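User: Can you help me understand a structure? I only have the sequence.
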Amino acid sequence: MGSRSVRVVVVSHDPVFLATFAEWSLKGRLLVWATKLLVVTSLPLPQLHSLLSSHWTFSMMNTILLNLDDTPPNLRVSVYTHLPYTPEGAQVVEVASWTPKRGLVVREGRSLFPPKFSNFYGAEVNVTALRFPPYWDELEGPDGIKQYSGTDYFLLKSIADSLNFTINVVPTTSWAEVTQRVEERVSFMATVLHNVLPGRLERYDYSWVYEYESLFFSMAQPGIKPQWQSLYYPLTDLVWAAVLLALLLTPVVLLLIIRVGEWRDGGDRVATGTVVQDVTGMLLGQNLPRRLPTVISSRVLVASWLMFALIFGSAYRGNLTAFLTLPKYPPRAETMQDLINTADRITMQPYGIEFKNFFSKSNSQLFKRLGQLMHIVPSVNVGQQQAVDKKQAHLDAGRYQQLKIAERFIGADGTPKLYLGQESISPGMAAWPIPHDAPFRPVLDRCLMAVIEAGLYERWNDDLLRQAQMESRKRYKQQETEKETESDSSLRSLTITHLQGAFMLLLLGLGLAGVSFFVELLAV
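Assistant: Let's start by predicting it. Here is the structure, written out as tokens:
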């Protein structure tokens, strides 16, 4: 049908046919709530009640049944419908009747196609969910009863309060079972957000999209590589060039002053190498040589050079300390291209098999390669632990990973062992899985919109993340107080990684000194 907002009329006196129609109309997705189904039949009341109560099409959808109660001249038609939720529980009620004399008479307080899901009157509504913080979390209460928390639970609780139903979480052991119960209509909805994927739409529908949840990858922070350039990093290339130019120019000017003095006053001739050595020594913080001339011009030049050496040395030593204790880290993988080039393996929880298949069927070579690298692991804890221990990455919802990193992967110094890449892998819409053509979807969507547009969902998420961070910091502080530390425990010792450049410079000097020594021996 081009539009399912129509009226469908079924006429049959055969209960087997009507039961078959109910079954196949469900499989064929004939009806939605906007479709009004009118069934015309003639059945005994017990059989009619059983028919209306035992089939989803008749009990839950927008259906009324016209039952011919008698034949002319006492012809009477009763109009029945099934109300799944009333103060007295689920029941079949007569909403109207028709006789040739009185015509159609609607009973007081009834309507031909009454709303069925505006009020559940405290009835239990089955839902399915598994732990997926910060969206859904389960805690064992003091009395052994499970207590629930998380943004999606708070969202469900708000809807339950609005529609007046009691939440009943159906036990499940896997994400596949969570959605399978929805497909079987045992569960009305899976109340943990699921990304909308084409393959999933073949098995179930989605509620209103209330979240744009993206997949992000987490990887271990890159380690510090030994680099001799740590001695070079404190100053920029331009500063080093200017210092070199000053070191070349100053001895020339000083030598010129010395030569003029020697020509005017006579005396011993100072070697050029000695002047260069003295100027270089002053730059490196050595004592002021006594053999320098005493003329005012040389004193002014030497004083200027000493001032320059003091400023340069202080700036260099200060920055050198920072670069030794906070060395330059290698670049991190931030994009999907970086991830493909860097990671040897990408892990994901069991529900990731659908993403793996989805990526593998993509026309993009990048996504195909991503699908090839993906492997399924039992849980996010296993995946993230492997990311820390090996050259791997873990793929999961961004908020979920942030919470897990804050809970389990904080280093001894308070820094996280894992980071999230800046680029999302699969930006997508997320919603709750519900059965195909669920008649309660309009009511559910309206409640979802009200909560989301009020900003409550984001507020709950911020509160939960803040609470997790506070608990993590508290746990870290407790661990620190339990350790027996010395007064200088906060100081960080430098390793060979930090001082590799200094040792390389020393070895270079020893090598040059050795070469010079052998040259001098040969020259004797």
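Now, to help you interpret it: The mean pLDDT is 84. The first helix runs from residue 15 to 27. Let me know which part you'd like to focus on.
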